[in-house]
Amino acid sequence: MKVPSVTIAWGERNYQNDNPIKTFRFNTEKELDAFLQGVNEANGWFDYATIGKGYMFNTEKEWRKDNGK
Description:
Blueprint: E1 5-9, E2 21-25, H1 29-42, H2 60-66
Antiparallel strand pairs: 1-2
């Protein structure tokens, strides 16, 4: 049985071949699809903050206050 996997070259496209490349393996196609959805959502963002009970910020309001929004 073939293991669902994807290999990703991180970073912007260039021809210097210095992008880190990593292969990710999953137990199911559903897990792979969820991972790719997350990568797609994160594309273009250089940083992130987690919001919710027990995370970096408890509420969106708290995050906005900290970030001057």
